[in-house]
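Thread: Newbie trying to understand structure tokens

Hi all, I'm a second-year student working on a class project, and my supervisor (Dr. K.) asked me to get a predicted structure for one chain before our next meeting. I've only ever worked with sequences, so writing a 3D structure as a token string is new to me. If someone could post the tokens and maybe explain what I'm looking at, I'd be very grateful. Here's the chain:
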Amino acid sequence: MAMPLEQFVEHDVALQRGGRLAECVTAYATLGRLNAARDNAVLVLHGYTTGPDMLSPDSTAAEGSWAGLVGPGLAVDTDRCFVLCPNLLGSSYGSTGPRSIDPATGRVYGPDFPALAVADSVDAQARLCSHLGIEKLHAAIGPSLGAMQAFSWGVRHPARVARVVAAVGSPYRPAGVVPADKLRPMFDARPYDAEALRPWLLQQRIQTLRAYGMAGTDGEVEARAALWAREFDAAALLVLAEAVSDFDVRAELHRMTAPLLFVLSRSDTLFPPSLRHELAPLFNAALQSWRFVEIDSDQGHLASGADAALWAAELAAFIEMKEPAP
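---
Reply by user tm_fold:
Sure, no problem. This is what the structure looks like when written as tokens:
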């Protein structure tokens, strides 16, 4: 079931790569209640090809549903926390993106959508928080591209986030992500037709789910991929790939004052557990404190959601800033 969405609307927003959005809508879902002090907000950030429905049990999120982590009595306890889950700019789930109408032409933007950076979405999220009266987040957390956003929050808005949780992600774009320059020629070669690209989108999703570690028969994987391909816009795949193409905040991590929980999956090939050893010297030098959790899962890149029970206790303890039970 789709999450009910609200909208935060801005006008004439300047973007990191030089473009502008005449209207900038950030769609978002919420769970729980913001307390009187407005200090119990947890920002949950989704991955590349999903949206706020990552919080739904029946989510088709490639990174796995987080319904086992976020909810009443769970690691991110919505009886105590106010959960805010915004859709990325450029995505297909309510925020301004390639499906939106370009006011200059009266037609959908398609692949001509203004170039984005990850920071554009993060800064829009910060303005959304201000709009809601949230001056400092209890935590910013997410998987995959959501982890990249969480790192970006830590370095761009250090005074506004108390904890950062980066799961199955890293502070830079991994080599395994398809380069945007491999996608762009296909879109530039012909007039944009979203429906004509549905079969291609379906095949991309099937390959992604298999690469991420999804088990199941070919028919089961194709059925899940088909649900997503009916909803997602092919141009959004391009726009978001370009947004993350040069993402790298390693040199800025010294700005981050929040403690970090860094979570990787034993079987993930996109963000392999070897990243722990690669990044440990940097984290030790740049960060005030950090913890590492390896999810002992066969679910690959899906592990943070699919095997939520294997790290939920560590997440809950970190959210409360205490040592997990042995």
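A couple of things are worth pointing out once you decode it. The first strand starts at residue 6 and ends at 14. The longest helix spans residues 198-212. Feel free to ask follow-ups in this thread.
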